[in-house]
Amino acid sequence: MAKRRKKRYKKTKKINVFFCIVVAVIFSAVILVSLSESMQFQYIPTVSEVEEFFTGKKPTNINSDCSVHFIDVGQGDCTLIISDKQTILIDAGENDKGKVVADYLKKLKIKKIDLLVATHPHSDHIGGMDTIIREFDIGQILMPKLPSKLVPTTRTYTDVLSAIADKGLKITPSKPGMTFEFGKGEFKVLGPVDEFEELNDTSLVSHFKYDNDETFLLTGDMEMNAEKALLKSGNKIQSDVLKVAHHGSSSSTHKAFFDKVNPEYSVISVGDGNKYNHPNKDTLDTIKKNNKQLYRTDYDGSVVFHIIDGEFQIKTTNTKQ
Ligand SMILES: [Zn+2]
Predict the structure, then answer these.
(1) How far apart are alpha carbons 257 and 217 in whole angstroms?
(2) What is the pLDDT of residues 3-45, one digit of tens each?
(3) Centroid of ligand 1 to alpha carbon of 76 (angstroms)
(4) What's the pLDDT band for 321 if we cut at 50, 70, 90?
(5) 317 alpha carbon – ligand 1 mean position (Å)
(6) Is 258 left (phi over 0), alpha (psi -120 to 50) or beta?
(7) 231 CA → ligand 1 middle, Å
């Protein structure tokens, strides 16, 4: 008698487990289908998409092997490239933005900058760099070689030199054609291809390519003379993403140059209500007429291009439009 009861109990337990599994499968299927419909996805949503759907916030943790971050530093420039766990930082914003950049890097758990690039020694590009040099491990530091009459004597510049000296680091002078490999990423110096009278034109211009596919042109503040020289040099400048030179000023991004780059996306790093009236309206027109998408750090905050399976996933930190 007791044996039979035990058997029946076992059978009931089996049915219960089976029933639970069936209910769980049906329940999951209903949730996935309703999510797919309401989010208008033709496929099962990713964890990030579900997170965004429920929280209304852009997900922060995306497992991309490569991401390029145009960090919002107000009126200035700062671009971070993460390529297969190695890092390149190009410029670091104004003097008061060093902490903003350092906090951004720490949030991403970055401890080392493998390649630190100073495009040119204006304060809106190298102001925060001494903070970065002091707070992080630094691999190599790359700067363009300046004609002696253009070497600045500003406090901002000497602060950077002191930070470099204090850590026993050295500056590597950049040369066009220099190439650095970071996993599947290739960082190549394109310019300056000539000597120029204007400090902006001496900006280190670089091209980043990931997995032989996605491409970025990073221009510092180069102006029209440098753009023309770069065009003439025959370098391949066509890129998917253009960091628009000199905060969208009228002195840069002339039409022939922009047409040759022919980007799908452009990013202007610029401060809200800046005193220079950047970006310029004509420059914006040149970009908007031909460009698929324009991002501005004064509207969008930091703009991040994640590369996932050969596709861009673009995230911005601001919704202010
Ligand atoms: Zn600038």
Answers:
(1) 12
(2) 555 555 555 556 576 665 656 655 665 555 455 445 444 344 4
(3) 5
(4) very low
(5) 22
(6) alpha
(7) 21
